[in-house]
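3.2 Worked example (two chains)
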Amino acid sequence: MGISWENIRSLLIFFGPILLPKAYSWYRSFQSSRRGGASIQRVPQPVQIALAVLFGLCCTYLVKTLPYFAPENLFAKTESRIQIPVDVLFNRIAATRPNNALTEEDLALRGKFVNLESRLLYLQFGPRVLAECPFCTSDEPKSYFYYAIPDILWPHLANLVAIAVVTSPTWTGKYGIQWRTLATIAAALLAVVEISIVSSYNYQGNARATRLGDLDMFFWTLRNYRLVFLALLDGILGWVLYLSATNRAFTQPPRLLSESRRSTGPCFLQRAR
């Protein structure tokens, strides 16, 4: 599983002009807070609630990486090689089911597993896409990718909505709004990177695997990476939100004094005249 240098360069060219000015602005605000800006304060109550929401999301994402919550992997469950005869594989699956009866998803996969190509695509896109796609065929592997796009984007979109809520000015005020742009860009970048990785993945590499341990369980590995990075994004957002809300860092530089001097200067001159 990987992403090419061309993909990375394209992302840097697209997001670089947006991120660099923001990074410089945040660096200046961080330096101004270190030089002695506003005094440290307690976390405002609305920000406390936002931090609790972000913490809950982080915990949820990390818990979902546990094997118990992962979609079933038929090859790992039965400890079978990818070249196993289809009848033998599903006889083993039936032995693990209640009353030795295959589920509807099992039957759908059994109809797809008649060739090696479909099994390789199963490791790339997971069980639901292989079992439920009504128009996908192994002769057109990209059809599975197009069908899988909503499933790939859904967690990112849901997390983006959560970010928009906790950084809204009506909830967290100036402390949240200053991080909204960066958090939105980071969330979009995660989605773009995952789409790029799935699209460019060489699923044919598993065809050479002769043992279960040699298989690259791409779908399940990428799912865990997605959850970990979403938790990391929300954790970092919560951290910087806490720092800015308590005036420990990233405080806005004080401008009131200079603006007051500029506004009172002309009045003083008029009175002197």
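3.2.1 Second chain
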Amino acid sequence: MGVLNLPLLMVATFLLLTLGIGLCFTKISTSFREYALGDQTWHTAPLMGTLLTLIYGGGRLMVGVEQVHNFGLAWVFFILFTSFLPHWVISWLALRMTPFMRNLSMSESIGRVYGTYPRIITGLANICFAIATIAIQINVMSRSISMCIDVEHSRMITSLVILVLFIYSRIGGMRIITFIDIAQTFVFFLIIPFLAFSIFEATGRPDVLSFLRTQESFQFHTLFQFEPNQLAIFTLFLSSLVSSINPPIIQRIYMSADCFQAGMVFFFTGCLSLFIALFIILLGLYTFVAAPHLSVAEVWHYIIAHISPVCKGFVVIGLLAMAMSTADTYLNSCAVMFSNDIASSMMAKKSFPYPIQLRLAKVIALFIGIITVLFSLYCSDLFALLKFRFDCFIPIVIAPFILAVLGFRGGSSTALMGMAAGTVTILAWNRWVEPATAMNGSFIAMVVNGLVMRVVHYVSLKLKT
């Protein structure tokens, strides 16, 4: 009986420790800046830890391992390149963000350059992006718990996890979230290699490479065939590349002491991220070698069925640590953006006292949490949620932000026309192109956004002269 309940006891202990760490490091914020970013005295290593746990949410591990069965070698390279390339790009951008280092959010930086209305639209798009991301994490929590713990206990544990997440996210702001993320980083680094090694032992096949050479989906020549699968992965890769330029990630730049520290944090995080990606790839490959004919939905059930009760407990803890560390940061980001960008912009020139701003942020965090839980019940397909989060954010926000960082200074109408063009493009793409090709259009809509902004800006300058 004790063995049967071991995963449940391990998960309960993990949740109690998480809540205990959160309550121990709780500190009353004296300003909204401190609530949003902490005290900005973080060393490089803690910032790297909290960034890693943010990058590797539970959805990234779960989808990554599953899709190796679906796409083969192409997905292996997808995991590999998206592990480090986006963060090295952000490292390069961070060195050029000196004018924005006193901002609290990505929306505020866009508002600084383009004005109030683009700032509000960016805030709303970012909140939609965050809701989809948190919904992914809640689905990961629910799936991982239900796979390892019987149905009677799984619903109770899932509810308890969400409750713990909401409690510490609302109480302490970014400071408490960062401390918990640092603790969960150690859990994450220990469990991923351990799980990959356990599945390798379970395969009973030392000739992994020899077996993969016999599989059509793992032949190198398939990478250069312009088939629907390869084109779909390539467009998804482009979208994943730019989707890392999102509010919680950019928030880590604002948490840094200066641009140089931010650049170092993202560069070294990219290196460590590559190390983690290798273990995710190995886990996916070992599972494929052990059972190559599994459907995507059966992959994780197979993994769980072939490990011991102790390993099951560690798998749940690892997935919960990753999912919670991502969800809490996005929840905090939503609260900050609504209070600092949307509500403050609507207040116009009226003052927005800190106690009211903080209270509003905590209420919004609870409200967003409830919406996200309902949304996760409505849609449980992780791959569909992944594409939805791209579509509601990348076509609208990324191009204006990158242009602003690189020195582009257009007016409010320029940004609004670009955002409108990006929105129309992604709606048209999803209506006519994606159903026929399975290609994600978020990156293309982002390019259209940027081109329209440049053209409108150029034409307006010509008209003025």
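3.3 Remarks
The chain has a mean pLDDT of 86.
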